[in-house]
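Page 42, continued from yesterday. The earlier attempt failed because a stray header line got pasted into the input along with the sequence. Redoing it now with the clean sequence only.
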Amino acid sequence: MEAAELNARIRGSLAELIGSANELRDLDQALGDGDLGITVSEGSAAVIAALEQLPSEATPVDIARASAKAFANANPSTMAALVAGALLAGSRVWAETTDVTVTDAQAFAAAAAASIAQRGKTQVGDKTILDGLAAVADALAGQTDADIALEAAIAAAANAVESTKELQSRRGRASWLQERSIGIADPGATALQRFVEAWKKAGESSK
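This time it went through. C-alpha coordinates are written below.
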Protein backbone atom coordinates (compact mmCIF):
# COMPACT_ATOMS: atom_id res chain seq x y z
CA MET A 1 0.00 0.00 0.00
CA GLU A 2 1.61 3.24 -1.16
CA ALA A 3 1.53 6.43 0.88
CA ALA A 4 -1.45 8.09 -0.80
CA GLU A 5 -3.61 5.01 -0.32
CA LEU A 6 -2.38 4.62 3.25
CA ASN A 7 -3.35 8.20 4.03
CA ALA A 8 -6.84 7.75 2.60
CA ARG A 9 -7.32 4.40 4.33
CA ILE A 10 -6.37 5.78 7.72
CA ARG A 11 -8.75 8.71 7.31
CA GLY A 12 -11.57 6.43 6.23
CA SER A 13 -10.93 4.05 9.13
CA LEU A 14 -10.88 6.82 11.72
CA ALA A 15 -14.07 8.34 10.35
CA GLU A 16 -15.68 4.94 10.90
CA LEU A 17 -14.09 4.55 14.33
CA ILE A 18 -15.65 7.79 15.57
CA GLY A 19 -18.99 5.98 15.40
CA SER A 20 -17.81 3.72 18.25
CA ALA A 21 -17.20 6.64 20.62
CA ASN A 22 -20.34 6.07 22.71
CA GLU A 23 -19.64 2.37 23.11
CA LEU A 24 -16.10 3.12 24.25
CA ARG A 25 -17.30 5.85 26.60
CA ASP A 26 -19.75 3.47 28.27
CA LEU A 27 -17.15 0.73 28.66
CA ASP A 28 -14.66 3.21 30.07
CA GLN A 29 -17.23 4.56 32.51
CA ALA A 30 -17.65 1.03 33.85
CA LEU A 31 -13.92 0.64 34.44
CA GLY A 32 -12.38 4.11 34.51
CA ASP A 33 -13.19 7.78 34.13
CA GLY A 34 -15.19 7.51 30.93
CA ASP A 35 -13.01 9.72 28.75
CA LEU A 36 -12.01 7.13 26.15
CA GLY A 37 -14.87 8.02 23.83
CA ILE A 38 -13.74 11.65 23.79
CA THR A 39 -10.09 10.65 23.36
CA VAL A 40 -10.95 8.47 20.36
CA SER A 41 -13.38 10.87 18.69
CA GLU A 42 -11.31 14.03 19.17
CA GLY A 43 -8.05 12.25 18.37
CA SER A 44 -9.47 10.65 15.26
CA ALA A 45 -10.89 13.94 14.00
CA ALA A 46 -7.54 15.65 14.60
CA VAL A 47 -5.64 12.95 12.71
CA ILE A 48 -8.05 13.14 9.78
CA ALA A 49 -7.56 16.91 9.59
CA ALA A 50 -3.78 16.61 9.84
CA LEU A 51 -3.52 13.96 7.14
CA GLU A 52 -5.68 16.00 4.80
CA GLN A 53 -3.04 18.75 5.02
CA LEU A 54 -0.05 16.55 4.18
CA PRO A 55 1.61 17.15 0.80
CA SER A 56 1.24 14.53 -1.91
CA GLU A 57 4.88 13.51 -1.54
CA ALA A 58 4.43 12.54 2.13
CA THR A 59 5.89 9.12 2.97
CA PRO A 60 4.46 6.43 5.28
CA VAL A 61 6.80 7.72 8.01
CA ASP A 62 5.46 11.25 7.54
CA ILE A 63 1.92 9.94 7.80
CA ALA A 64 2.60 7.99 10.99
CA ARG A 65 4.39 10.92 12.63
CA ALA A 66 1.68 13.40 11.68
CA SER A 67 -0.92 11.01 13.09
CA ALA A 68 0.99 10.70 16.36
CA LYS A 69 1.36 14.45 16.80
CA ALA A 70 -2.29 15.16 15.99
CA PHE A 71 -3.63 12.43 18.27
CA ALA A 72 -1.48 13.56 21.20
CA ASN A 73 -2.36 17.23 20.80
CA ALA A 74 -6.09 16.61 20.51
CA ASN A 75 -6.52 15.38 24.08
CA PRO A 76 -4.33 15.35 27.21
CA SER A 77 -5.37 11.85 28.33
CA THR A 78 -2.98 9.04 29.23
CA MET A 79 -4.38 6.92 26.40
CA ALA A 80 -3.69 9.67 23.88
CA ALA A 81 -0.07 9.85 25.02
CA LEU A 82 0.33 6.07 24.87
CA VAL A 83 -1.18 5.83 21.40
CA ALA A 84 0.95 8.71 20.13
CA GLY A 85 4.08 7.07 21.51
CA ALA A 86 3.10 3.79 19.91
CA LEU A 87 2.62 5.46 16.53
CA LEU A 88 6.02 7.12 16.77
CA ALA A 89 7.64 3.82 17.69
CA GLY A 90 5.97 2.18 14.72
CA SER A 91 7.09 4.96 12.39
CA ARG A 92 10.73 4.17 13.14
CA VAL A 93 10.50 0.73 11.53
CA TRP A 94 9.23 2.37 8.33
CA ALA A 95 12.33 4.54 7.81
CA GLU A 96 12.96 3.14 4.33
CA THR A 97 9.40 2.08 3.51
CA THR A 98 7.54 3.51 0.53
CA ASP A 99 5.04 0.70 -0.08
CA VAL A 100 3.62 -0.78 3.14
CA THR A 101 3.31 -4.57 3.04
CA VAL A 102 1.81 -6.97 5.57
CA THR A 103 5.32 -7.55 6.88
CA ASP A 104 5.72 -3.80 7.39
CA ALA A 105 2.36 -3.63 9.16
CA GLN A 106 3.39 -6.47 11.47
CA ALA A 107 6.66 -4.73 12.32
CA PHE A 108 4.74 -1.52 13.03
CA ALA A 109 2.26 -3.31 15.32
CA ALA A 110 5.04 -5.11 17.17
CA ALA A 111 6.97 -1.86 17.73
CA ALA A 112 3.80 -0.10 18.85
CA ALA A 113 3.05 -2.89 21.31
CA ALA A 114 6.56 -2.74 22.72
CA SER A 115 6.20 1.02 23.19
CA ILE A 116 2.94 0.68 25.11
CA ALA A 117 4.41 -2.08 27.27
CA GLN A 118 7.37 0.12 28.16
CA ARG A 119 5.69 3.50 28.50
CA GLY A 120 2.62 2.09 30.23
CA LYS A 121 4.65 -0.27 32.43
CA THR A 122 2.31 -3.06 31.49
CA GLN A 123 2.35 -6.55 30.01
CA VAL A 124 -0.07 -8.88 28.25
CA GLY A 125 -2.64 -10.06 30.75
CA ASP A 126 -2.90 -6.75 32.62
CA LYS A 127 -6.18 -6.04 30.78
CA THR A 128 -5.17 -3.11 28.59
CA ILE A 129 -4.99 -2.20 24.90
CA LEU A 130 -1.71 -4.13 24.86
CA ASP A 131 -3.62 -7.41 25.02
CA GLY A 132 -5.26 -6.60 21.71
CA LEU A 133 -2.26 -5.02 20.02
CA ALA A 134 0.07 -7.88 20.88
CA ALA A 135 -2.49 -10.36 19.59
CA VAL A 136 -2.80 -8.47 16.30
CA ALA A 137 0.99 -8.32 15.91
CA ASP A 138 1.18 -12.07 16.48
CA ALA A 139 -1.65 -12.72 14.01
CA LEU A 140 0.13 -10.76 11.28
CA ALA A 141 3.44 -12.58 11.73
CA GLY A 142 4.28 -14.74 8.71
CA GLN A 143 1.33 -13.45 6.67
CA THR A 144 1.80 -12.17 3.14
CA ASP A 145 -1.72 -11.91 1.70
CA ALA A 146 -3.31 -8.64 2.81
CA ASP A 147 -6.90 -9.90 2.89
CA ILE A 148 -6.05 -13.05 4.84
CA ALA A 149 -3.88 -11.04 7.21
CA LEU A 150 -6.67 -8.56 7.87
CA GLU A 151 -9.15 -11.30 8.71
CA ALA A 152 -6.60 -12.86 11.05
CA ALA A 153 -6.04 -9.50 12.72
CA ILE A 154 -9.76 -8.92 13.18
CA ALA A 155 -10.22 -12.36 14.72
CA ALA A 156 -7.22 -11.89 17.00
CA ALA A 157 -8.44 -8.49 18.20
CA ALA A 158 -11.93 -9.84 18.89
CA ASN A 159 -10.58 -12.86 20.75
CA ALA A 160 -8.34 -10.60 22.82
CA VAL A 161 -11.32 -8.48 23.85
CA GLU A 162 -13.23 -11.59 24.92
CA SER A 163 -10.26 -12.80 26.93
CA THR A 164 -10.00 -9.49 28.78
CA LYS A 165 -13.46 -10.04 30.24
CA GLU A 166 -12.03 -12.80 32.43
CA LEU A 167 -9.10 -10.69 33.61
CA GLN A 168 -8.73 -8.32 36.53
CA SER A 169 -7.55 -4.85 35.56
CA ARG A 170 -4.02 -4.19 36.79
CA ARG A 171 -3.22 -0.79 35.33
CA GLY A 172 -4.76 2.66 35.43
CA ARG A 173 -7.92 3.72 37.20
CA ALA A 174 -9.57 0.41 36.32
CA SER A 175 -7.17 -1.34 38.71
CA TRP A 176 -8.91 0.41 41.61
CA LEU A 177 -11.95 -1.82 41.02
CA GLN A 178 -9.88 -4.95 41.65
CA GLU A 179 -12.14 -8.05 41.37
CA ARG A 180 -15.09 -5.93 40.26
CA SER A 181 -13.33 -5.33 36.93
CA ILE A 182 -13.71 -9.01 36.06
CA GLY A 183 -16.52 -9.64 33.56
CA ILE A 184 -16.13 -6.35 31.68
CA ALA A 185 -14.22 -6.08 28.40
CA ASP A 186 -11.23 -3.75 28.40
CA PRO A 187 -12.11 -0.46 26.68
CA GLY A 188 -8.67 0.01 25.12
CA ALA A 189 -8.61 -3.46 23.61
CA THR A 190 -12.16 -2.85 22.36
CA ALA A 191 -11.06 0.41 20.72
CA LEU A 192 -8.33 -1.48 18.89
CA GLN A 193 -10.84 -4.11 17.75
CA ARG A 194 -13.14 -1.42 16.41
CA PHE A 195 -10.23 0.21 14.57
CA VAL A 196 -9.22 -3.04 12.86
CA GLU A 197 -12.85 -3.62 11.87
CA ALA A 198 -13.04 -0.03 10.62
CA TRP A 199 -9.91 -0.63 8.53
CA LYS A 200 -11.75 -3.40 6.70
CA LYS A 201 -14.90 -1.29 6.19
CA ALA A 202 -12.86 1.62 4.86
CA GLY A 203 -11.17 -0.70 2.38
CA GLU A 204 -14.49 -2.08 1.19
CA SER A 205 -16.02 1.35 0.74
CA SER A 206 -13.06 2.52 -1.34
CA LYS A 207 -13.46 -0.24 -3.91
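Notes: The chain has one domain: 3-202.
Reminder to self: strip header lines before submitting.
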